[in-house]
TrEMBL record:
Record organism: Tateyamaria omphalii
Organismal lineage: Bacteria, Pseudomonadati, Pseudomonadota, Alphaproteobacteria, Rhodobacterales
Domain Cytochrome c positions: 29-138
Annotated SUPFAM superfamilies: Cytochrome c
Keyword annotations: Heme, Iron, Metal-binding
InterPro entries: Cyt_c-like_dom, Cyt_c-like_dom_sf
Record flagged with keyword Cytoplasm: no
Protein name, UniProt field: Cytochrome c domain-containing protein
GO molecular function: electron transfer activity; heme binding; metal ion binding
Highest taxon of the lineage: Bacteria
PROSITE patterns to which the protein is assigned, alphabetical: CYTC, PROKAR_LIPOPROTEIN
Length: 139
């Protein structure tokens, strides 16, 4: 039996052993962080400048989309929710981007609560940062 004064440390130890510890990293949702992530994970296909001319794009059956024109193709409005859902991989079965890896299966950083229209949604910080970077390179 665990004494009462040892209950909290015991529960914490069980939680840590089970991998359910909270992510204590400070969330970085900046476009600068997003650019670093982009260069690590996306540039190989989408190119360093986001125009779709990355070396790994050869043999995909077509070039990846020009990420600098996302807002232009959406009546001048950057489609933030769409962009994050494509990066994450959420509901991409019939989308041309299905050749793209589902980054939602990876660690996308600590969750950040984002409020919109009175609804609070947890979104991984790296996903927000990538979206912020892509919005910053729109032409």
């Amino acid at each position: 039996m665990i004494p009462k004064d040892g209950l909290i440390p015991a529960l914490l130890a069980v939680c840590l052993a089970a991998g359910c510890a909270p992510d204590l990293r400070e969330p970085d949702v900046s476009a600068a962080h997003g650019e670093r992530l982009y260069l690590q994970k996306c540039a190989v296909c989408h190119g360093n400048d986001g125009t779709g001319a990355g070396v790994a794009s050869l043999g995909l059956g077509g070039p990846p989309p020009d990420l600098t024109r996302l807002a232009a193709r959406n009546d001048g409005v950057f489609p933030e929710t769409f962009v994050m859902s494509v990066i994450d991989g959420f509901n991409r079965r019939d989308h041309p981007s299905s050749a793209m890896p589902e980054f939602g299966n990876e660690d996308l950083g600590p969750m950040v609560q984002v409020e919109e229209d009175g609804l609070s949604t947890p979104i991984p910080s790296d996903l927000i940062a990538l979206s912020a970077f892509l919005e910053s390179i729109q032409q």
